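Let's practice the habit of predicting before peeking. Look at the sequence and jot down your guess about where helices and strands might fall. Then scroll down.
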Amino acid sequence: MSKKQHIGIVCPCGDTFMVPPCHSTGRKKYCSKKCFYKYRGRMKGLKYLIVQKNKGWFETGELFLNQLHKTNMNKYKRLHFWINKIKKKTGICKKCKNKKKTQFVNISRKYKKILSDWTELCCSCHKQYDFHRKEASWLSLL
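Done guessing? Here is the structure:
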């Protein structure tokens, strides 16, 4: 078996490197990845025209939470974002004491930014709480 002759190619950085003949037709142009990223050009025919920055994209989640007051999002959603950021969920319902998926519920239903006015209920207790919202006996259990 005879070895195939390797062909020398000159990288844009000036180094010469050897490649097999099958890679010499344009597949291998750079001596390393460092040179590839340094000297590569944009593919022909691609034109990017950026007219305006997309306002729907956010760099970080913090920016999104801080910008909520500027959006047209209603007060209910903003307060739920706020309470989920401030209070950590334990996963234990305050009423039935079971460990389930929980949600934060506003006790007074006035939706004010008061931490003591929020409690953590499981989904089923949250539905019961919404259904029996005028009964004082149900509220006293919280």
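How did you do? The chain has a mean pLDDT of 76.
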